[in-house]
């Protein structure tokens, strides 16, 4: 159609995130959509122009919001668009399976003074859950027509559009109204009186906004004075902030509509099951211990079930390495042979063998997420987060951080306040990412008996979360002082995950891991091999050849050969870097080999494992991870192994995380501050643990 | 491949190739991050490693 044709009707589509708004928009607008940005902000604007029944309609898909209080850019945009006076009608998409939460937004929409239509979306799913809706009564209570829809198959979309056109033609604003209680209503009226030039609906809306604490620079001074006086009076009388009292009234409205217009015909179906499960899993006292126990179970399973497939991979790699060494004579292209055997198989092979552990961990996370339990964990952590001065939403980036810290840092964009956002960015790297799991999968079986492995891994993950919370507390008490804002946490009903969904997730994870091992880790391993091979030593401090020839036993000969290899390695670039680092890491129980692996881990955490494989396999015929574990056991104590894990957990994140931090904070200062701060924390914590362990005599033998 | 210079050449090419590939990849990633920073939704970045990745589109529905 002609883009220059004048628009006859503008329809705004509003609703909560996850309400199925965009699906309905796609059904109605079809292929006419245009995606751009709202001017001056980075919030995506989706709109479409199309012709229906001889008129040109523009439909705008507003950002998904929980309220119209303008606390976030999305909320401000939604509010401004609705109040822009160009909208002929606003359609609110309501998730019928989560009615009360969605109606909280309705309560605010009714105050906007615009014609309203309601799409009762996913109503078939709600009906399957045993809910019956009295649509007529609901229409009367909400003050606009209610049309049942289904975003997944487009059912009801045509009826919804027709209802929107009729409502817009009638031009009558929504008639629903929230009653805030006698006292508050009197105050609203007193403030509204001061908006002399406004009509009744606009004056009431602006009065409520002022009492809610929203800025209104164009409000008359008299209105602001009365609002301030009434706010103080109502807060004193109510014993809590006025915005909380107003929110309670809106929830009361939502609950009232849900109670009157919805009948739960089958209390024994999923809704009841969800409530019963929530009574246990969200229990004020037992909720968190249950979560901690579940995670303990997950970590035990990671090792118990991951061991056999890990052995198969290791056996396969060992066989491959042995075949290659046997088939490739040592005198033929010795450098290339060492690159393949020590660099590629020793580096990448070690990383690949931990694939089963990684997959099992993400299988468990995907399962907990798909059942709806992870949303409950965020809800449970909300209380803890607030006590620590963090926003409840901060836990969601931290959960994402279990996979990778980079998307976790990007996910902090959902936090409205800079202080919440920056604090979360700075502490998110303390949560162990999937790459760190590779390090634990190498070190834990190397140093700890099978029955302790799950415990140790569990302890490491908990230590990370605890460190994040403590550092957040410190930051909020010093550089980022201020109140943390409340938020609405959605709790989806519990569902049994499908094999297909979990299977796809596992496949994605496996593919991503193997891709990384076959590309980035491979390339870094090649570079690390070069650094661990050159410059080559031509003159030695001892006549090793003569000593080996004179050795009385094979063991004595092997010891001399090991000394020769050590002298070769120390002369290389990596050996020199390690030696230079050694004085600073020696107090932590680390030697120069560990130092070089820690430097490599800055590129990507998995490189720690690859580098340990390379430095311990250069000059050795075997390059599989089992022999690496044996070497580690022979060279280091369990306490040193624990110290390595603690350092890797708390120390500087990988370079991609630093780059993401710089990008998101727009400051090298914060990025470098994170780098130095985390390294300092890791050094001190590792020093304390190691020295305490030595002093107590734990794990030193 | 018995000639030592051929051994050196092969290893040199592999190491140089790996270094060049890493450099180009780092540069491309920095550009991608820059583009992603201009968007409102973290999920639009591809969600590498994000346990919630599969729900990205729904989240903003």
Overview of the structural elements:
The complex is a heterodimer of chains A (701) and B (61). Chain A is α/β, with parallel strands linked by helices. Chain A is 63% helix and 7% strand. Chain A has helices at residues 21-29, 73-82, 99-109, 123-128, 135-142, 157-170, 182-192, 200-211, 221-238, 242-261, 270-281, 287-327, 334-352, 355-371, 373-387, 395-400, 405-410, 418-427, 434-447, 450-477, 499-531, 544-550, 554-571, 573-585, 592-601, 607-617, 625-635, 638-650, 655-665, 668-696, and strands spanning 9-15, 33-37, 44-52, 55-61, 89-95, 116-121, 131-133, 146-149, 262-264. In chain A, strands 2-3-4-1-5-6-8 form a seven-stranded mixed β-sheet, with helices on both faces. A two-stranded antiparallel ribbon of chain A has the order 7-9. In chain A, helix 7 packs across helix 8 and helix 13 (334-352) packs antiparallel against helix 21 (499-531). Chain A is elongated and about 105 Å long. In chain B, 62% of the residues lie in helices and 0% in strands. Chain B is built from two helices and no strands. Chain B has helices at residues 4-37, 56-59. Chain B starts with a helix and ends with a helix. At the A-B interface, helix 1, helix 13, helix 14, helix 17 and helix 21 of A face helix 1 and helix 2 of B.
């Amino acid at each position: 159609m002609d883009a220059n044709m004048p628009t006859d009707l503008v329809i705004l589509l509003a609703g909560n995130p996850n309400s199925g708004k965009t699906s309905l928009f796609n059904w109605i607008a079809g292929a006419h959509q245009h995606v751009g940005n709202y001017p001056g902000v980075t919030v995506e604007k989706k709109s479409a122009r199309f012709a229906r029944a001889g008129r040109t309609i523009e439909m705008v898909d507003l950002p998904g919001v929980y309220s119209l209080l303008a606390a976030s850019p999305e909320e401000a945009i939604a509010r401004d668009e609705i109040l822009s006076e160009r909208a002929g009608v606003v359609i609110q998409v309501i998730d019928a399976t989560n009615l009360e939460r969605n109606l909280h937004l309705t309560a605010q929409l009714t105050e906007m003074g615009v014609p309203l239509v309601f799409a009762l979306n996913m109503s078939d799913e709600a009906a399957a859950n045993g809910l019956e809706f009295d649509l007529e009564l609901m229409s009367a209570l909400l003050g606009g027509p209610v049309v049942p829809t289904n975003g997944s198959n487009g059912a009801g979309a045509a009826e919804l559009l027709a209802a929107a056109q009729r409502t817009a033609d009638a031009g009558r604003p929504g008639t629903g109204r929230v009653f805030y209680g006698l006292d508050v209503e009197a105050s609203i009226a007193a403030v509204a009186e001061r908006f002399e030039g406004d009509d009744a609906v606009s004056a009431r809306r602006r009065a409520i906004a002022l009492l809610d604490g929203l800025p209104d620079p164009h409000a008359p001074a008299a209105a602001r004075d009365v609002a301030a006086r009434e706010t103080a009076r109502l807060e004193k009388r109510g014993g809590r902030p006025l915005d909380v009292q107003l929110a309670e009234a809106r929830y009361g409205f939502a609950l009232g509509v849900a109670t009157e217009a919805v009948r739960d015909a089958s209390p024994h179906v999923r809704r009841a099951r969800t409530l019963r499960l929530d009574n246990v899993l969200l229990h004020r006292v037992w909720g968190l211990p249950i979560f901690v126990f579940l995670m303990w179970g997950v970590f035990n399973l990671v090792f118990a079930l991951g061991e056999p497939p890990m052995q198969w991979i290791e056996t396969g790699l060992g066989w491959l390495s042995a075949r290659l060494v046997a088939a490739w004579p040592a005198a033929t292209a010795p450098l290339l042979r060492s690159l393949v055997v020590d660099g590629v198989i020793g580096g990448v092979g070690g990383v690949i063998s931990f694939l089963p552990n990684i997959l099992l961990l993400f299988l468990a996370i995907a399962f907990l997420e798909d059942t709806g339990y992870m949303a409950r964990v965020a809800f449970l952590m909300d209380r803890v987060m607030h006590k620590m001065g963090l926003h409840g939403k901060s836990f969601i980036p931290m959960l994402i951080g279990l996979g990778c810290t980079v998307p976790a840092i990007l996910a902090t964009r959902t936090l409205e306040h800079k202080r919440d956002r920056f604090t979360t960015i700075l502490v998110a790297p303390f949560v162990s990412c999937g790459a760190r799991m590779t390090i634990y999968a190498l070190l834990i079986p190397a140093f700890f008996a099978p029955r302790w492995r799950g415990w140790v891994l569990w302890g490491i993950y908990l230590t990370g979360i605890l460190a994040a919370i403590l550092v957040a507390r410190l930051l909020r008490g010093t550089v980022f002082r201020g109140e943390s804002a409340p938020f609405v946490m959605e709790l989806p009903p519990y569902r049994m995950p499908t094999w297909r969904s979990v299977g796809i997730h596992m496949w994605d994870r496996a593919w991503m891991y193997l891709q990384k091992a076959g590309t980035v880790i491979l390339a870094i391993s090649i570079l690390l091999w070069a650094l661990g091979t050159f410059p080559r030593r031509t003159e030695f401090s001892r006549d090793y050849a003569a000593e080996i020839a004179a050795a009385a036993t094979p063991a004595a000969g092997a010891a001399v050969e090991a000394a020769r290899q050590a002298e070769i390695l120390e002369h290389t670039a990596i050996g020199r870097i390690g030696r230079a680092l050694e004085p600073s890491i020696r107090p932590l129980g680390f030697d120069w080999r560990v130092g070089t692996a820690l430097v490599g881990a800055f590129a990507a955490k998995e490189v720690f494992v690859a580098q340990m494989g390379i430095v311990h396999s250069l000059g050795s015929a075997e390059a599989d991870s089992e022999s690496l574990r044996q070497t580690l056991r022979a060279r280091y104590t369990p306490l040193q192994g624990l110290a390595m894990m603690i350092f890797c957990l708390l120390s500087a994140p990988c370079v991609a995380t630093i780059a993401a931090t710089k990008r998101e904070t727009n400051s090298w200062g914060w990025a470098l501050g994170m780098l130095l701060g985390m390294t300092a924390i890791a050094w001190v914590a590792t020093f304390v643990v190691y020295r305490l362990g030595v002093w107590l005599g734990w794990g030193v033998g | 491949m018995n000639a030592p210079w051929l051994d050196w050449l092969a290893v040199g090419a592999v190491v140089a190739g790996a270094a060049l590939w890493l450099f180009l990849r780092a540069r491309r990633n920095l550009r991608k991050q820059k583009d992603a920073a201009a968007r409102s939704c973290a999920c639009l970045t591809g969600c590498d490693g994000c346990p919630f990745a599969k729900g990205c589109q729904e989240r903003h529905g």
